[in-house]
Amino acid sequence: MTDEPTPRSMEIFFEVYEPLPRQGPGSRASAARALALCRELPSSPRVLDLGCGAGGQTLHLAELSAGTIVAIDRHAPSIERLRVAAAARGLGERIQARVGDIGRPSHEPESFDLLWSEGALYNIGIEEALRLYHEPLRRGGYFVLTEAVWRREDPPPEPRQSFAEYAGMGWARDVVAKIDASPWSLVDHFTLPDSDWWDDFYTPMERRIAELRDRYEGDAEALAVLDEIAKEPEMHRQHSGYYGYELFVLRKT
User: Fold this and answer.
1) Would you say residue 106 lies in a domain?
2) What domain count does the chain have?
3) CA distances from 74 to 68, 101, 117, 121, 208 (A)
4) pLDDT digit string, tens, across residues 97-129
């Protein structure tokens, strides 16, 4: 996307992203691995999914636990898509999808057992997230989050430019240092495998881009936006060794 996207470019951006199984890296297997690290969760946890998008991970959480989930995102069409998907799977009673701003929490103190956020906290910064969401989690509860991190020195210009919006993006050790300086305890962390980028994210994204190229044949503006979006999976194909997503499991002690 350009630095100042136009309404048309944003429309096409959401045409690409909204129907995808996920709007960022992750998988059911990685969610299960993270949940296994939350060893003292209640049998039916109260879960808050921050920046849920269209809810790929929300649906996985509902399948992997017996809890109830409040899923929040500021993009109303994504929330509506999640509501439809949850109802179709018989999960409408357990998933409450709401339009909201994760930078302005309005939850009661100690109202959740598990906080979850995949690829969304860069919008407010991890330090701010650790501050804002300490109170809504009960004592002994867990916070699972993913953060983009560098994995090799001197990344090429393409990934540097792509992650320019991730202010203060550093290494996994930098995130650990921020956690250590906060009231939270780090349980463990691991790097998402490369399959988490492709299976439910970049592979269906490239298929969706191909579909829309056919739909917008002859529309130079739309095709230019699609070309720009297509640079992301291609960059990952060439430079994935330089960066990744790290999943962190924290506990409120």
Assistant:
1) yes
2) 1
3) 20, 5, 14, 13, 23
4) 999 999 999 899 999 999 999 999 988 999 999
